[in-house]
């Protein structure tokens, strides 16, 4: 017996979309005149759309954004984080837009802290679809 058809179903989104998060981030960047930034992403589902939307926001703006490139991190096969620290050091902008999952964020920030890239002078904006979770944040975030 087929399941009954639902009529008038409603989808309720409780979190903000990636696009909404980026729009707010770009408003903050504009407000503080932080025009130079880099994108750092993992292979987390949706990362291509994230990169594409950053390009849409910068290309369609009258602000003179200085997009300093995209670094896509592959966190597998690097248990000590050696490659990750080296790659993060190669990013030339102090403003970094990071797209990743919650677990990946902990690994990225651990490596950033060990590489001296998480203190004063560095600003990270983290975007992701599943960053929420427990009330307690991991140590490196």
Explain how this protein is built.
The protein has about 140 residues and is α/β, with parallel strands linked by helices. The chain has a single domain (about 20-125), classed as 3-Layer(aba) Sandwich (Rossmann fold). The protein has 4 helices and 4 strands; from the N terminus they run H-E-H-E-H-E-H-E. It has helices spanning about 20-30, 45-60, 80-90, 100-115, and strands spanning about 35-40, 65-75, 95-100, 125. The chain has a 4-stranded parallel β-sheet with strand order 2-1-3-4, sandwiched between helices. Helix 1 (about 20-30) crosses helix 2. The model has no long low-confidence stretch (mean pLDDT about 85). Pfam families: ANF_receptor (PF01094). It is found in: Membrane. Keywords: Membrane, Transmembrane, Transmembrane helix. This is NMDE4 protein.
Descriptive tags:
141 residues; alpha/beta; Rossmann fold; 4-stranded parallel sheet; 4 helices; globular; Peripla_BP_I; transmembrane; NMDE4 protein
